[in-house]
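This part of the workshop introduces the protein records we will be handling. Backbone structure tokens are a discrete shorthand for how the chain folds in space. Once this layout is familiar, the rest of the handout is easier to follow. The record below serves as our worked example for the rest of this section.
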Amino acid sequence: MFDQAFKLRQLAGQTEKIKQKTRIIAIASGKGGVGKSNITLNLGLALKKKGVKVLLIDADMGTANLDILLGLTPVYNLGHILQGKCTLKEALLTGPSDLKILPGTSGVQDFIDIKLEEVGRLLNVAAELEDDYDIILIDIGAGVNRTVINYLGGADEALIVLTPEPTSVMDAYSLIKIMSINKIKKRIGLVVNQVESKQEANELSERMASVIKKYLAGEVDIMGLIPFDINIRRSVSKQKAFLKNYPESKASRAIYQLADRVLKNRETGVARGASGFIYRIIGMFNRK
């Protein structure tokens, strides 16, 4: 096997003209069923409405949902780009408001023992992403596994979605604990979904932030409090984004507030760009 890191650096050196500007935000959850994909979709739409060039990547290998939420049928995914079967533009799906979605790879095997020419294709994709997008939201799988941790490690920022249910809270804490154990140090934001009241959400968020600071010596930001809203369920059944169907709903207003906080973080955070993300991801998946 060739020296992966060395040859990747060689290829990266050939793409120095790439501007390291695109911010990569991984959106994760400790357990499934907390509305992570729905938040990713609607956050992307809110950012786009605010003038941000945004791309969604569906990297939830087990239960990819972004296309289903919109009633779209993908033909290609990132794995096909790796294999040279299609271009980035051919793989992209188009959602409401011309929102672009890239279906993820079919599995982690696509990143293990990756061939040199495939690395080159990924870096070419990175160049296109740097030119076309300001923020990339990656909807990664629920739970704690190697793939989830690697994506979190590669991103510039992480949003952890949870609900007030005790199991969701514990699973979210476990995910953040695993990040701490793996020395993944980055800005972590909590998004509490399906809350019954602002007081409930604030108490939960502050309690969790306090526990994380005390036992993990880490910091988390309270990024979003998304209220329970029947319009979300109605939109899912219609395969529509609730931000488009019910723009004045409680949930939509909360998503716009979340978008504002994401943009504020972008002003103060350091983005290492799409090529840097790809470099880190390949290195992590190929660690012994």
Remarks:
- The CA atoms of residues 124 and 202 lie 43 Å apart.
- The two ends are 13 Å apart (CA to CA).
